[in-house]
Write a structure and sequence with these properties.
The structure holds 2 protein chains of 2 kinds. By secondary structure, chain A is an alpha/beta fold. Chain A has helices spanning about 1-10, 15-30, 35-55, 60-85, 105-115, 130-135, 155-165, 185-190, 200-210, and strands at about 90-95, 120, 140-145, 175, 195. In chain A, α1 runs parallel beside α3, α4 (about 60-85) crosses α5 and α5 packs across α9 (about 200-210). The mean pLDDT of chain A is about 90. Residues about 125-135 of chain B have low confidence and may be disordered. Classes of the chains: A alpha/beta, B alpha/beta.
Chain lengths: ~210, ~325
């Protein structure tokens, strides 16, 4: 549909004002909020994610597109609640204890939100217990952990251990990522999955939470 | 002491030190601790790291102030202590240098008295110290390491330019007053932030030499920072802001750094600085491992010199042995 395509292209251009206007217009025209999300906002973020991965665009472009996405998403949220539409799932996200780098984690949050997941972002320097308490309280299906430092990967391992101790593994799944993290490390510490970048994280989460 | 810039302009290649963080972690820095807190609490560790790099033949020593701008220190609740933290880092570097000089003089005097005694001393302390005695007359410069704030500037992020500028101005003002010889602005990915740091330096001192380096990704379309800055844009913007040497540090191993150096040489005729990682970190059996050995650095460093690099040093994962390897390559090149 023309209007939804325009939402997608305006989002890609980082035009938050335009995305907001078009979202309002789409609702007025009676297009369903789920359709606006999937074929407008998510479609646009998918293009942004793919182009970022191919190094065709850079972090500033992604951040502007994300802002435009939120301009539309914030307007759709009350409608989802009204219509009783539930999201694809809830993800608790954070940079692990001992690390204050959150740009990568924020990117993952943006992309997952753009893909239709509910994100509870715990920020940076997050203790293992906080991840688990929050995931239990919010009935999240997934805990996503990020780190840029090479020295904080044991914190990720601790979260996974705690889940096992509480018998929550299998019920609450885990994904890890960040510069020093690899597929091998993810396996070694027993994480359910690993995302090598923000766009890949979305694919992995989709596969994990079917 | 001969001028750093005169030496660079005469075509000399200078060797900088290697990683600080990597060695601090070996010395017991805990993950999540502020590395710059060591400046106040364990200056002895900083001194011993600096001495190891001096023994390896480094002639540019970086202060442990990568994250010592008030803006960055605020993450650890240490913003108000930025002056002491910067001053203590300079004091540790200077004190290592003084101890290094004293040790050199002692060895030199020994040489005058009995050659046999020196031979014993040399075999006892190993090749690093032997190389140090050869460098008895080498001038050493203490450079302020100044890294990015970790914030994202408006309109992409929430931080105003004035906030970063003032943060850099405070840090650089404190550390220039404490007596550094050079400024190294490093690991930058946003050209605007790097330019703010260079300008802040220039507002404090019109003539202190400034090295400014950015971290690039190797993309199919060439080298770009994650913020989208090309080598050409970096060269032009940093020089215009008043940097004397420009180049790259971190993010890549030495082979990619050789290609980045060539890209800089094509973009500018101004002197280039390269501080390479010892490859990209891997985790092996739960431990961090940097794959590029000192021998690999020895093999590849000549290509950096051929590319026309004026200052060669190390970044993450490099050790005094990597610097010693570079030192030997540079010394062999000398006529």
């Amino acid at each position: 549909m023309e209007l939804l395509l325009e939402i997608s292209t305006s989002l890609q251009a980082g035009d938050d004002g335009r995305v907001y206007e078009l979202t309002v217009k789409a609702i007025e025209e009676g297009i369903g909020p789920k359709e606006i999300l999937d074929d407008g906002l998510i479609a646009g973020m998918n293009v942004i994610g793919e182009r970022f991965r191919r190094h065709e665009i850079f972090l500033p472009d992604v951040l502007l597109a994300a802002r435009a996405m939120y301009a539309g998403l914030d307007h759709l949220k009350p409608l989802f609640l009204r219509d009783g539409i539930t999201g694809r799932g809830t993800v608790v996200l954070g940079t692990v204890q001992g690390d204050l780098h959150d740009i990568g984690k924020n990117l993952v949050g943006i992309m997952l939100r753009g893909a239709g997941y509910e994100i509870i972002d715990l920020g940076k320097d997050v203790a293992p217990e906080t991840f688990i308490e929050t995931a239990e309280k919010e009935a999240a299906q997934l805990i996503g952990m990020s780190t840029l430092l090479t020295t904080t990967t044991p914190v990720m391992a601790r979260v996974i251990e705690l889940l096992k101790e509480k018998g929550l593994d299998g019920q609450i799944r885990t994904i890890v990522g960040g510069a020093p993290v690899s597929e091998g490390l993810a396996r070694e510490i027993g994480a359910d999955s690993y995302g090598y970048d923000a766009a890949n994280a979305v694919e992995v989460v989709k596969a994990l939470l079917v | 002491m001969s001028s750093f810039l005169d030496r660079v302009r005469s075509g000399e290649v200078l060797v900088a030190d290697g990683a600080m963080g990597t060695l601090l972690f070996e010395e017991g820095l805990e993950p999540g601790q502020c590395p710059e807190r060591m400046n106040l609490e364990r200056p002895d560790i900083l001194e011993s790291i600096a001495r190891r790099y001096l023994d390896a033949g480094a002639e540019i020593l970086h202060t442990n102030t990568f994250g010592a701008s008030a803006v960055k220190l605020a993450d650890y609740g240490l913003a108000e202590q930025y002056q002491e933290i910067n001053r203590a880092a300079v004091a540790a570097a200077r004190s290592a240098l003084a101890a290094h000089r004293l040790a050199q003089e002692t060895v030199a005097q020994g040489e005058e008295t009995t050659d046999a005694a020196v031979a014993t001393a040399r075999s006892a302390v190993g090749s690093a110290a032997a190389s140090a005695t050869e460098s008895a007359s080498r001038d050493v410069y203490v450079s302020c390491s100044c890294g990015p704030s970790g914030r994202i500037l408006e309109p992409y992020g929430d931080t105003a330019e004035t906030v970063l500028y003032e943060g850099f101005e405070q840090q650089l003002g404190a550390i220039v007053a404490a007596g550094v010889d050079l400024i190294t602005i490093e690991t930058m990915t946003d050209l605007r932030e790097a330019v703010l740091a260079v300008r802040a330096t220039r507002s404090i001192s019109p003539d202190i030499p400034v090295m400014a380096t950015m971290t690039f990704d190797d993309t199919p379309r060439g080298f770009y920072t994650v913020m989208g800055v090309s080598v050409e844009q970096a060269a032009e913007g940093l020089l215009e802001a008043g940097a004397d040497l420009i180049g790259s540090n971190c993010g890549n191993g030495i082979e990619t750094m050789v290609r980045i150096a060539r890209a800089f040489a094509e973009a500018t005729d101004q002197p280039i600085v390269i501080q390479s990682n010892a490859g990209l970190p891997e985790i092996r059996e739960g431990r961090v491992y940097f794959p590029e050995s000192p021998a690999f650095f020895a093999e590849k460093a000549p290509e950096l010199l051929e590319a026309g690099v004026s200052v060669v040093g190390g970044c993450c994962g490099t050790t005094p042995d990597h610097i010693l390897a570079i030192r030997r390559v540079v010394d062999e090149r000398k006529p």
